[in-house]
Amino acid sequence: MARWLTDYARMAEVAARKGFAERDLAELFGLSIDEWRAWVAKRPDLAKALARGRGDADTRAERMLLARALGLTCTETTIKTAPVRGEDGAVTEEVRERRVVRKRLPPDFQALKLWLSRRRPDLWGDGGDDDPMNALSEEDIDARIRELEHQLGG
C-alpha cells in the first residue's frame, strides 16, 4: 500500500469536487479499490475531505440544473485559425479570428420537471399518470417558470 502524505486529503477533496468516482480516486493515488477503501476507513480527515468535495460537486450540479431549468445566458467563444510556416519551416496554427457571443438558452422543460418533481413532489408529482404536470398547458408552464424566476430574483 502507498504511503500516506498529508496533502492527500486535500488532493482527494479537489478530485471529488471535480466528480471523480471512487475507482478514479483509487487510480489517482495508485491504489486498488480495496486499498482505497481501507484508507478512507482509517483516515477520518480523508473521509471528511471527500464528503466536502462531493457536497460541493452536488451543490454545483443542483445550481446548474436549476439554471438550465429556468434558462440561462452563456458565453460561447469560437476561434478560427490558419496554418503558418515559421522561419524554421515548422507549421503552427495562428489565431486569425476570435469571436465571443453571448447566447440565451431557453428554459429546459425536462430540467424544470426534474427539479420541481424532486423539490416539491406534493405539487409536481413524479411523472406518473396522476402527475399534475401532465394537465398543464404550455402557457401554464410558462407562467410557473416566470413565477419561479420572480421568486428567485431573476
Q: How would you characterize this protein structure?
A:
There is one protein chain. This protein is of the alpha+beta class and 154 residues long. The chain has 3 domains: 8-68, no CATH class; 72-105, no CATH class; 109-151, no CATH class. 54% of the residues lie in helices and 19% in strands. The protein is built from 7 helices and 2 strands, in the order ααααββααα. The protein has helices at 8-17, 22-28, 33-42, 44-70, 109-119, 121-124, 138-151; strands at residues 72-85, 91-105. A two-stranded antiparallel sheet has the order 1-2. A hairpin with a 5-residue loop joins strand 1 (72-85) and strand 2. The chain is flat. It starts with 7 loop residues before the first helix and ends with a helix. The model has no long low-confidence stretch (mean pLDDT 86).
Summary, kept brief:
With 154 residues, this protein is an alpha+beta fold. It has helices spanning 8-17, 22-28, 33-42, 44-70, 109-119, 121-124, 138-151; strands at 72-85, 91-105. The chain has a two-stranded antiparallel sheet with strand order 1-2.
